[in-house]
Amino acid sequence: MTDKVDLELITKSLKRLKEIIAQETVYLRENKIKAIDGLYHEKLTLLQNLENQKKLLKLKSSPLDRNSELAQHLIKLGKEIDSTLQVYGKELIKAREVNKCVMNAITQALEEHFKKVGSYNAKGRDSQYLPKGESSVPPMRVNETF
């Protein structure tokens, strides 16, 4: 980290961060969740660069003039990122709901299957004779494997 604020680095980092978030949004829409992992390290590096520059800006004695062309450009970039993040947030909620629906459907199908089969649970008891509230179906939650 240098002692000088690098405004070009800030601008480039913000633009690239916006592109990455937009790409993650596309991946969410296409249900390519694993592809999002590939963007993680670059996004982390960009965020670290921005955090370092933010610290330098705080240490700088004279703040950036809000009316300057550069300040207006950075404000515009910030608003664009906020807008992109709002779309990303909506897609993330949709993806989470889809995942939840799929897991509920799988759980329901397993419960129906186990009711019909009358199998034994992990304790070796017949599922037909389980105490009330106990199930031979393994518990499942969203974002967990079974």
What this model shows, in words?
The mean pLDDT is 80. The two termini are 45 Å apart. The chain has helices spanning 7-29, 33-59, 69-117. It is built from three helices and no strands.
Q: Using only CA atoms, what is the Rg? A: 25 Å
Fraction of residues in H or I helices: 55-70%
Shape by Cα distribution: elongated
Order of helices and strands: HHH
Going by CATH, the architecture would be Up-down Bundle
The tally of domains stands at 1
- CATH fold-level name: Methane Monooxygenase Hydroxylase, Chain G, domain 1
Instruction: Round the mean pLDDT to the nearest integer and report it.
Output: 80
Secondary structure class reads mainly alpha
User: How many strands appear in the DSSP assignment?
Assistant: 0
- Number of DSSP helical runs: 3
Major sheet details: none
Distance from first to last alpha carbon: 45 Å
Under CATH at level 1, the class stands as Mainly Alpha
Low-confidence runs = none
Query: How large is the share of residues in beta strands?
Result: under 5%
